[in-house]
Every structure is written in C-alpha cells, then in structure tokens.
Amino acid sequence: MNTIAFICPISKKNTSERRRANDIMNRVLNPIATEIGYSVIRADFLEGENVIDDIIKMIIEADIVVADLTGFNPNVLYEFGIRKAIKGKCICIINKERRLDKLPFDISHFRATPYEFNSIESVDEFRKDIRNKIIYMAKLPYSPQVHLTASELSDLFGVTVIKKSICSKKDHYLLSNEVINRRCKQIFLMQRSSSIVLGAEQLWDEEKQFIKILMDAINNCDKFYHIISTEGIKAHIKRKSSFFPEFKDYNKRIFNHSGKAAVKCSDENKVFILKNLPEDDSDTYFKLDRQARIMSVEYEDGQVETIIVQSLGTDQTCFLIRGNYMKDYLTKCKNYYAECTPVTWRQIEDLYHQYEDIEKHK
Question: Is 138 helix (H, G, I), strand (E, B) or coil?
C-alpha cells in the first residue's frame, strides 16, 4: 500500500503539540488515506529498535511526505531537508497563527498550506486542499534537490544500478577500459574468443587498447579469473573476415605453467590459470552463451561493477551494472570458474598451428 509519512512536532502526551499532531492525523490525513488507498505513518508509531534509523527509512521510503513546519521544530526541519534532498514530493503545512513570512530563508520559497481547527468548515477546507495536493503530487515524478551519480546512489544507499548501456560492436571495449583503468582487487573475465590469447583483431584499435589496459590491471590485481573457449577461438579464426596479427605473440601474454596456460605477470608469484568454457550442450533446454562476455571487478573499496555483453541482431548490447547484487554475482562467477577445467598449453599451441594453416589457405 502507498504511504504518507507525517513529520511534525509531537512532544509529550497532553501537550498542545501532541494534540495538534493527533488532530491533523486523525481528522485530516487518515480520512484522506482511507479514501484514496494510502496509509499514514508517524514517528511515534514506529516499532523498530533504532528510532532514528526507522525515521530516516520512513521519510525516504514514503510515497509522499506531509511536513508540519509549525514552530520550525529542528527535528522536523532536519527530516524535511533529507526528504527534499533525496526525493521531493513533500507537502508543507503550517498553523495559520504562525506568520508565513517568518519561514527560515532556505525554505521560504516552498509553499506552506496554512490550517486551523476553529470550525468544521476550516477542517473540511484543509482536508480537501491536502487531498487534492496528494492526488496531484502522486502523479508527478520524484524531484530531488540533490542530484547524485549512479555510482553515488549505489554507494550511499546500497542499491544496484545500471550505470551505462550502449549498443554497438566495439564500444564495449571502451567501457571495459573505463572499469579496469583503476586499482582492482579481483577481476573476472569470461570472453569466449579471448583477447589475451588471440591478441587484437586487425584494425580493432579499441581491442588493442583494451588488452594493454587489461594486462596492466592484471599485474596490479590480487586475483584474476579468466574463462575462455578453445572451441570458440577455433570458430573465430576460421572466419574469412578475421585476422589476428598479434596471435603469433601469444607467449608474451600467456605462458606454460606445468602444462597449463596461465597469464604472464611481472610478478612471477602470481599464477592465474585460464579455464575452459564447457562445450557440452546436451541439455536441450540450456545452451551455453555463444558470446559469453562478462567482466566483473571488485575495487579496493569493496564495490563491484559488472559488464555484461550480449548480441542484439548484428549489434551488441552492453550493460555496466554496479551494486550489492553484483557482489553476489561475482561470487557466482568465481564459483563457476572453479568448476571449469584448465586450458592446457597444448591446446593453445594447437590453436595457433591451426590458425597458421588457415591463414596459408585464405
């Protein structure tokens, strides 16, 4: 159910502030809420263990906030400021006995609806006015006073957001460069036709730059998990339009570690084994991704960003996602890596020999 958060001076029982708060809630807001399908919440009705956290949660999550500015109560002004900064959609009210021209400067430009309870007519008029404002405001988009970037939203509120979305054939390399061109603790890369093995495709400067930045990032990270597909590489090099002039230098990027293919790092103590994407498609309800391009990285501050690339017709749709769900996703990626079998050095050598034969007959 949609909610209206009522922030107001409450004070102790039997005080004028408490009576006024109860009058507004019981004679105005609750009848409106019942009529239009909302519920009203107020700080003193919350039952959580941490009162302050509950109040902040209430003001942030409510669909609409009604703020009684009567007396310029510091708590109310603080809560009102948080709501305006983050979401907007706040209706201001004030007792008619107070002078509206005495509103604090920083909120003087907000319209405050005056009210009084001197007669049934004044209450009915106030209720009608607030009802119309709520119905009107419900149709409006949220209008925060402070505009945060997608990364700031994710970091501050623990949400998962799509930072960017692009649709092209090569721009996902530029997006990948942006993600790894900083200190990474862990990097997961599942790329069916591995750029590290093949090198950059001819005339693909974006991929060439990606490989350079990636190798630097691998040298500086703590862990690198790379899943490739030897079958996918084989299919790629058979395409008549594909040419990989840097494939001949594959031993500059990978090396033979006890019969397994590993990424070559400046630190010889770092051994990052390449794993092979399974090719078993016996399950008729599930086919392994033909593209299989996923990059997920964890930064020093613990935040995780993930790039997922998929085919859309002849183009490729690429999403850059950041947030808590991506932390769980990175764990799943690493677990999947652990299940895959290592790529043998013999497989890499065979791939290159096949590539040489193919190029001779093109």
Answer: helix
Cα–Cα–Cα angle for 291, 229, 276, nearest 5°? 130
Residue 297 CA, distance from chain mean position: 14
- Least Cα distance to 45 among 18, 71, 81 occurs for 18
Of 246, 235, 241, 266, nearest to 197 (Cα)?
246
pTM summary value = 0.77
- Residue 344 gets which letter from DSSP? B
3 state DSSP class of 227: strand
Residues 14 and 10: their CA atoms lie apart, in Å, by 10
3-state secondary structure of 21: helix
What is each CA distance from 172 to 210, 273, 314, in whole angstroms? 10, 24, 14
Q: Which of 295, 107, 130 is nearest to 196 (CA)?
A: 295
Mean pLDDT for the stretch of residues 24-29: 96
State phi, psi for 304 to the nearest 5 degrees. Answer: -125, 135
109-152: pLDDT as tens digits? 678 899 999 899 999 999 999 999 999 999 999 988 888 889 99
Average pLDDT over residues 193-222: 92
